[in-house]
Amino acid sequence: MKTAIIVGSAGSPNQAVEILKIDEELQIPVIICIHFTGAAMETFANHIKAETKNEVTIVKSLTRLDKGVYLPEGGKDIIFVERDIVNVIENEKSKESIHPSISALFKSLQRYADKSFTIIVLGGLGDDGAKYAKDLKNMGVRFLIEKFPKFPYLPNNIAAQLGERYERFEIERIKEVMKSLNKL
């Protein structure tokens, strides 16, 4: 099963929604891990559903991936516990860490990563997830990085770990890739 993962931080929620506006029902799972305050997750889920007409699941416990969009419960990290099952956890450093944590998601993905995964890195600050990017790429994960993000720090920090082994596209091209991934 192909799976798309969209990660980002500052400036990326609207870009994530734009990528999902492919004018067709999702046939694959799409996990979104964007830094949000806990209270904003429900609103973001409703916005995605209204804009894309796709099912959106807020993960609160063990959840089997199917077609549709998956967001972590507010203030928690989304992680893989099996190839097609995700869960949420509270990080013991939750007061100092940003949630949902891209690093927690990428670390959990290392057990299951292969060429069926595509990670889309949108704009943001910091380097969350960067230390796991190279290992995931070596396992066959495809990385698409936003070409002109409002905040380039997160995508540039992840790209630095990947060397030349990623694709850098504008949002419209990433949207086309999402549409091609959606084909069964």
Distance, first to last CA: 9 Å
Write the CATH architecture name: 3-Layer(aba) Sandwich
Tell me the Rg in angstroms.
Answer: 15 Å
What is the percent of helical residues? 25-40%
Overall structural class, as computed from helix and strand content, comes to: alpha/beta
For the largest beta-sheet, the strand count, sense and barrel status come to:
7 strands, parallel
What percent strand?
Answer: 25-35%
What is the CATH topology? Rossmann fold
Dominant shape = globular
The level-1 CATH class: Alpha Beta
Work out the count of structural domains. Answer: 1
Give the overall pLDDT as a whole number. 94
**Model regions low in confidence, pLDDT < 50 over at least 5 residues:** none
N-to-C SSE string, H for helix and E for strand: EHEHEEEEEHEHEHEH
Note down, in words, how this protein is organized:
It is a single chain. The N and C termini lie close together (about 10 Å). Helix 1 links the parallel strand 1 and strand 2. A 7-stranded parallel beta sheet has the order 3-5-2-1-8-9-10, with helices on both faces. Strands 4-7-6 form a 3-stranded antiparallel beta sheet. It has a single domain, classed as Rossmann fold. The model has no long low-confidence stretch (mean pLDDT about 95). It is globular. It has about 180 residues and is α/β, with parallel strands linked by helices. The chain is built from 6 helices and 10 strands.
What is the topological layout?
Blueprint: E1 3-8, H1 13-20, E2 29-34, H2 40-52, E3 56-59, E4 63-64, E5 68-72, E6 77-82, E7 85-89, H3 102-109, E8 117-121, H4 130-138, E9 142-146, H5 153-162, E10 167-169, H6 171-181
Parallel strand pairs: 1-2, 1-8, 2-5, 3-5, 8-9, 9-10
Antiparallel strand pairs: 4-7, 6-7
